[in-house]
Design brief:
alpha/beta
Length: 398
């Protein structure tokens, strides 16, 4: 990659280290290799915070930003961000995750940062009601007004925000066909694994060779549709022999299923394996036959792209974001959100039809290769960085 960002100071800010580690690693590498002086700012005490340390690619500046509203802590974080931005004199500050987006946009404005960017990856207010929904929507509108530019990671999310009167469609931008950072096609290729390695992993998980495997990968929380997935799996077990469910991802604090602790809820089936967070999830895509992501809200769905690069179709909710990541009937199936019955039917349809399963997996892989190569997405973002900086420099000369 050309050193087109030589001498340019960029800060990428996120509330959660988990988001940076799992979603942005490839993009940060590409930005750094393009010559940028890159700093990552995120909390250090949340899950995976210890994975972020200063290295050859970027400097890590730990700063705690709470996910929930905490006026005193948020004000302290804002003041610290202003001080950091003024001290470091970044050319570009680029935030992801909602709380970081709000604080960074305000801090960047007060610090006089040339280019301020936020990327929306889904809205926390989608299923909220009353005053809180109104407040959170208003804050998203404020982020868009304050920043130099705002990205969304899917075209359907862009349309949704416009329909919800958060902003005009023209105020939001999508990189290519969408996604936050695309997918590393080489990393998730089946060429990285030999049959013996996969057989050994299956045996370690006590999954017989002939069994089909449904994979869930992501935060284990209500908003990801895990409760509906477990209910649907129980129904599918009655009609499909020899199926397993692999659940991979960190468990959110205080998450339960119908009031029962998560570990106890999944113990009702001998065919469910919960593996927690896995640093290298690639092998689990190779063990699986399909991905299931029944989220209530999703900006795009990076796991869908990782599955596609691995040759897997996906069954997901018919919501904005996932409707961009999954081509219904071609690369997977879309079902009504929060509906375990329709989810079970879709899973059964694919599990019982190997020809359809293979066809959708091949189509998903082809689409990922053409549209969502992480290198292509990174280059589009780098081009935007340069365009925005050049526009700002011209403006300052006038």
């Amino acid at each position: 990659m050309k050193k087109s960002l030589n001498g340019i100071k960029i800060a990428r800010i996120s509330t959660a280290p988990f988001f940076v580690v799992t979603q942005l690693s490839e993009q940060l590498k590409d930005i750094s290799e393009a010559g940028a002086q890159l700093t990552v700012i995120t909390s250090e005490f949340e899950p995976l915070g210890d994975n972020l340390v200063s290295n050859d690619l970027y400097s890590h500046n730990p700063l705690t930003i709470h996910r929930e509203i905490n006026l005193l802590a948020d004000f302290k974080a804002l003041i610290k961000l202003i001080k950091i931005f003024r001290s470091e004199k970044f050319d570009i500050v680029h935030s992801t995750t909602p709380k970081a987006g709000l604080l960074v946009s305000i801090a960047g404005l007060f610090a006089g940062t040339k280019v301020r960017i936020h990327t929306f990856t889904g809205q926390t207010w989608v299923h909220k009601q009353g005053v809180m929904r109104y407040l959170l929507k208003a804050l998203d509108s404020l982020i868009i007004r304050i920043n130099t530019i705002s990205f969304v990671d899917s075209h359907s999310q862009k349309l949704y925000l416009s329909e919800q009167n958060v902003c005009k469609e023209s105020q939001l931008h999508v990189l290519g066909a969408g996604s936050l950072a695309g997918v590393n096609l080489q990393r998730f290729s089946d060429q990285n694994f030999v049959k013996n390695e996969l057989q050994t992993k299956r045996q370690a998980l006590n999954i017989p060779e002939q069994c089909k495997v449904i994979l869930f990968l992501g935060r284990v929380t209500k908003d990801k549709g895990v409760c509906e997935l477990l209910e649907a799996f129980k129904a599918v077990e009655l009609s499909c022999n020899d199926i397993f469910l692999l659940i991979v991802g960190p468990l959110d604090n205080d998450f339960s299923v119908d009031g029962i602790e998560f570990e106890e809820a999944i113990s009702s089936s001998d065919n469910i394996r919960y593996l927690g967070y896995q640093k290298s999830p690639e092998i689990f895509f190779q063990l699986a036959d399909l991905l299931c992501l029944p989220s209530y809200r999703e900006g795009f769905g990076t796991a869908v792209l990782e599955a596609a690069a691995s040759g897997l179709p996906c069954v997901g909710s018919n919501i904005y974001g996932l409707s961009d990541a999954i081509v219904n009937g071609e690369t997977g199936l879309l079902v009504e959100a929060k509906n375990p019955q329709s989810l079970a039917l879709a899973l059964e349809k694919l599990l019982k039809d190997q020809v359809l399963l293979d066809y959708m997996g091949a189509k998903a892989a082809q689409r990922a290769k053409v549209l969502f190569d992480s290198k292509k997405i990174s280059q589009k973002l780098i081009s935007e960085y340069l365009r925005l900086l050049n526009a700002k420099r011209k403006q300052l000369k006038i």
